[in-house]
Amino acid sequence: MEALNQHLFLLLNAPPVPSAGLLLLARFLANDVVMLITVLAAVLWVRGRRNGRATLVGAGCALLIAAALNATIGALWHHPRPFMIGLGHQLIPHAANSSFPSDHATFMWTIGISLLLRGSWPRLGWGMMAFGVGVAWARIYLGVHFPLDMAGALLISAVASLLVIPAGSFVDLSLTPALIRLYEGAVRRLHLPKALFPLDI
């Protein structure tokens, strides 16, 4: 399995002198997309009504579970990154920590799967899944992850998203209203614009 993992990595990893355009795209997907999705989630929270916000809270719960699973796996099983064993070409800096599974891909796919399971914003959910594929490719291309790190990320994302489903009633009826009250109370106390209250989406 490890030999296959390394073989697939070398097929996807960048050449010694990559195309400037492809390198720019890979760096954008590898580093910037996660930040853009975080900003998008904040906008959806601000402009969304209760059902939309409940979807985001459920996705947030799934992300917390996924992050805990990733941290546990990383602590129990240290898998070196390609550059740590002198394999391929590393084109972005990265800490020499465990590679499995990919946190970036887990983030993207957990949100995507959560949205799809909930049935809210399905086009956005599929978009997240597609961008997750792009993030996975980019981080392999840039030499900081193996392909099986991405397979692990997809599995963790699915497990974490599915684990939230039994708690759907708690998320909708208790957790989401509590978070909305905290948010709207903070908006009022800070005298922020009324535009920070939701539209009907």
Gist?
By secondary structure, the chain is mainly α. It contains seven helices and no strands. It is elongated.
Overview features:
201 residues; mainly alpha; 7 helices
Give the helices and strands as they follow along the chain: HHHHHHH
Percent in helix: over 70%
Uncertain residue segments: none
Number of beta-strand segments: 0
Beta content comes to under 5%
How many domains?
A: 1
User: What is the overall number of helices?
Assistant: 7
The whole-number mean of residue pLDDT values reads 92
- Given helix and strand content, the structural type is mainly alpha
- Characterize the largest beta sheet: strand count, sense, and whether it forms a barrel: none
| N-end to C-end Cα span | 46 Å
Instruction: Compute the CA-based radius of gyration.
Output: 19 Å
Which of globular, elongated, flat, extended, rod-shaped describes the shape? elongated
Multimeric state: single chain
Explain this structure to me?
It is a single chain. The protein is mainly α. The chain has one domain. 71% of the residues lie in helices and 0% in strands. It is built from seven helices and no strands. The longest helix is centred in the N-terminal third of the chain and has 28 residues. The model has no long low-confidence stretch (mean pLDDT 92).
